[in-house]
């Protein structure tokens, strides 16, 4: 939800980047293959989860020391049919509920980083409060999510967060079976487990004219 990625970069930039006072720094980052997105829900007979390891996400974080400003772009997308519960029947029911034929992609876009700070008295751990937009079944809703961030190396971060969503808020009818005798709860919990890799490029003051 590329989403969380920029967060770790933002806080770690002070020690990692070492940028000039008159420079613009572009940080490009992408999701690593071991990133996952998971939905956890409950029905009248069991607890179920749908997991995908086929996330796509890239973004850019721009630190403009010359103009004393910064901006960012971060987004994550995942194909609904990449989610698997371990049951073909459950998969089919949930795909239909999420209207995958009309809206095959779930998307998360970062809107704002509200706050970020160190956690556990460690320079390698952070908590970030972000605002993003989740789009499911063609419906977009803004939400606030807290992420835990661990700096794994100078260029790699692990971001973990979760958020409860109501299916009716996305115009989704919870699937039911056996003439409605088995009901799925309206609430799903989304779990983000994101591994992010970034690279940095510097543009000094002498190059600013090229960027205008």
Entry summary:
This protein has helices spanning 5-16, 88-97, 208-211, and strands spanning 23-31, 36-42, 47-52, 55-64, 69-79, 105-119, 122-136, 139-151, 156-166, 176-177, 182-183, 187-204. The chain is mostly beta strands.
- At CATH level 2, the architecture is Beta Barrel
* Morphology call: elongated
Quickly count the domains: 1
User: How far is the first residue's CA from the last residue's CA?
Assistant: 29 Å
User: What class do helices, strands and sheet pairing give?
Assistant: mainly beta
Helix percentage = 10-25%
CATH class: Mainly Beta
Which whole number gives the mean pLDDT? 78
How many β-strand stretches? 12
The number of helices is 3
Unreliable spans: 1-20, 206-212
Fourth CATH level, the homologous superfamily: Lipid/polyisoprenoid-binding, YceI-like
Beta-strand residue percentage: over 45%
> Helix and strand succession?
HEEEEEHEEEEEEEH
CATH topology: Lipocalin
Could you describe the largest sheet, including whether it forms a barrel?
A: 8 strands, antiparallel, barrel
CA radius of gyration is: 19 Å
Adjacency order of strands in the biggest sheet: 1-4-5-6-7-8-9-12
